[in-house]
Amino acid sequence: KAGVTQTPRYLIKTRGQQVTLSCSPISGHRSVSWYQQTPGQGLQFLFEYFSETQRNKGNFPGRFSGRQFSNSRSEMNVSTLELGDSALYLCASSLVGSRETQYFGPGTRLLVL
Amino acid sequence: GESVGLHLPTLSVQEGDNSIINCAYSNSASDYFIWYKQESGKGPQFIIDIRSNMDKRQGQRVTVLLNKTVKHLSLQIAATQPGDSAVYFCAEANSGGSNYKLTFGKGTLLTVNP
After folding, report:
1. Closest CA–CA distance from residue B80 to any residue of chain A (Å)
2. Alpha helices in chain A (DSSP H)
3. Residue among B46, B95, B104 whose CB faces A42 most closely
4. Going residue by residue through chain B (114 aa), what tens digit of pLDDT does each one get?
């Protein structure tokens, strides 16, 4: 069974731009969570989607948004990029009946210049 | 507030030795704990988990110990191998909470010397 896939793997943007990251969960997984990882703050929860609905949200500004499609694939968007948004963005998926056990993708490395 | 912290940011061991990575948590409502391993350039990889109704769980070469009295979690790796070199994160969650999410510690860098 294929793991969680994320595209693109690397991205360079400039301040003020917006970016969209994509995540395809493990087949059969319907819950998708997004995390931001930085050296200073570590892994921080962004949001979780299930059945195309945002089920939970972390403490990030409204510039960070996401959505989930009917096939469970998810995208996250960051608008008006700031230098501090440079990070590794990780997507994790889990089974409906095992929400706690999350399996991570390789991440998208975003650099904002 | 919720927080998960690690006692040691780095750990260096010799190949073949046993490794112990520690983690402290502060949310007494947390009832589920996970250890992840993250190698350079990769996402976190699930290692082992434990629920609060247990104090020990064993996997292949790994054991997780949970001490709820002092809110302490540890990961023991037996016969550590060079391939075990990575950053190890503990994470906690309240599985019964309406706003379920994993809260991660800062991570411990494990270096295995051949």
Report:
1. 24
2. none
3. B104
4. 344 544 448 999 999 999 999 999 888 889 999 999 999 889 999 999 999 999 999 999 999 999 999 999 999 999 999 999 999 999 998 877 666 778 898 899 999 998
